[in-house]
Design brief:
With 440 residues, the protein is α/β, with parallel strands linked by helices. Helices cover 34% and strands 20% of the residues. The structure holds pyridoxal-5'-phosphate.
Length: 440
């Protein structure tokens, strides 16, 4: 019978041989740090030639003081995952500051750089997609790819011609293509010839992720890494980095520009369009609506993908409606807007929807892109309104002390109610089972 340790025996034997030489190369312990690049190891002052402390800032007084203050203010841990209850205001602030520094729309921080690659790659690529990896990629990139379930294609290290060949071979295959490069390669210390790879983007239409773990803080006029140095930041759709090297701390980040996530921008649903349409087809749905919160970033991608499958796409948006004027930018963030689902019934409605959603950003933005009833009244033609989720105005009133207020809210908005086809009246129907045509 084999036991679990059988496969480790050859490694144990090699380790034993190394120990017989009197050196444990994989077990070096820094007993005391004397400076960013010097430590006491087995009683000897030793230069740390292998450290990634590129900017030597692990003893930066302001960073140490900020760390101590954070301990005083927030304690030793969040004791919860970020998605449940472990997201703190300082996480958000850090993400905003990092996005600003990186000149990108969004940034998400992770506990380590390793997890940044796991999270970004497995979030971006799915079972239908292909990830193209440099053969000398860091293990976190390989693991992210395995976790994603995507097809993995390796190309020769820093060889754009080899990647070109492999991309040509998979021409016409379904799914998206993600190419992953490192700014400076952790294994070899050389740089990716970014320009050569970027030139392939036009030909093969892939998306590019650059892991700047070893180049962040070190390369480029802004210190943002290889893409910054090469003047090709706009071509890097996604950037990953770590705080454990030049930043002298721990943690990692992934960053992206908004348009790159357009066809996956279904906030709250985290649902991918092709997979949504797969499911719609399995269920025999003839038409499907997509209503992102406050935006329509996926509209074009969704429309084209649905048409290709013979499914009627219904374009819509779950807008935020300010309780008063959209220009009033005061009040508690969570309470400054109600939700309302709008669906375009025809071309006029689609154009009105675009006007409303745009004005939500250009005029009404306060924590969220908000419209108001005055704007709604001006652009109501061709739109169907649904009472939305529990955060809809009417649904909120229904749950309040006086359900009559719900009808008053509907009346105030000038909406004529009608039951959606097939909705049963059992005396307990909720607004969620009802639709309303905008008749303002
Ligand atoms: C290229 C690359 N990506 C990601 C990582 C992971 O970063 P961390 O050690 O902060 O988890 C490393 C670390 O060695 C790396 O070299």
């Amino acid at each position: 019978m084999t036991d679990l340790f059988d496969k480790h025996r050859p490694i144990a034997e090699r380790f034993q041989r190394m120990m017989e030489l009197g050196v444990n190369a994989v077990g070096i312990t820094n007993d005391k740090l004397l400076s960013p690049t010097c430590a006491l190891i087995q009683g000897r002052e030793t230069i740390l030639a292998g450290t990634n402390n590129y900017m030597g800032i692990t003893f930066e007084p302001s960073a140490i003081a900020a760390g101590k203050k954070a301990l005083d203010d927030f304690g030793t841990g969040t004791t919860g995952s970020r998605i449940a209850n472990g997201s703190y205001a300082m996480h958000k602030e850090l993400e905003r500051e990092l996005a600003k520094f990186l000149n990108r729309k969004h940034c998400i921080v992770f506990t380590t750089g390793y997890q940044a690659n796991l999270g970004m790659i497995s979030g971006l690529a799915g079972a239908r997609d292909t990830v193209y990896l440099d053969a000398d990629s860091h293990s976190s990139i390989y693991d992210g790819c395995t976790l994603s379930g995507a097809k993995l294609v390796r190309f020769r290290h820093n060889d754009a011609a080899d990647l070109d060949k492999r991309l040509s071979r998979s021409e016409g295959e379904e799914g998206g293509k993600l190419v992953v490069l490192e700014g400076i390669y952790s294994m070899l210390g050389d740089r990716a010839p970014l320009k050569d790879f970027v030139e392939l983007k036009r030909k093969h239409n892939f998306q590019l992720l650059v892991d700047e773990a070893h180049s962040f803080g070190v390369l480029g006029p802004h210190g943002r890494g290889l893409a910054d140095e090469a003047g090709l930041e706009a071509e890097a759709d996604f950037v990953v980095g770590t705080f454990s090297k030049s930043i002298g701390s721990i943690g990692g980040f992934g960053s992206f520009v908004l348009h790159a996530l357009a066809d996956r921008g279904l906030l709250d649903g985290a649902c991918r369009i092709e997979e949504l349409l797969d499911q719609a087809q399995r269920l025999g749905q003839k038409s499907v609506a997509v209503t992102e919160h406050g935006n329509m970033f996926s509209a074009v991608v969704f429309h084209d993908a649905a048409r290709k499958r013979g499914i009627t796409p219904i374009l819509g948006c779950e807008v935020y409606v300010a309780p008063g004027s959209r220009f009033d930018k005061s009040g508690t963030p969570g309470e400054t807007a109600n939700h309302l689902v709008l669906l375009a019934e025809n071309d006029t409605g689609f154009k009105n929807l675009i006007k409303l959603v745009s004005a939500g950003y250009t005029e009404g933005f306060y924590y969220k892109p908000r419209i108001d009833k005055e704007l709604l009244a001006r652009h109501a033609s061709g739109l169907i309104g649904l009472s939305s989720c529990l955060k809809g105005e009417v649904a909120t009133e229904v749950r309040g002390p006086s359900p009559k207020k719900a009808m008053a809210a509907a009346a105030r908005m000038g909406l004529s109610w009608r039951r959606k086809a097939g909705a049963q009246s059992n005396g307990a129907s909720t607004p969620a089972a009802m639709g309303m045509r905008m008749t303002l």
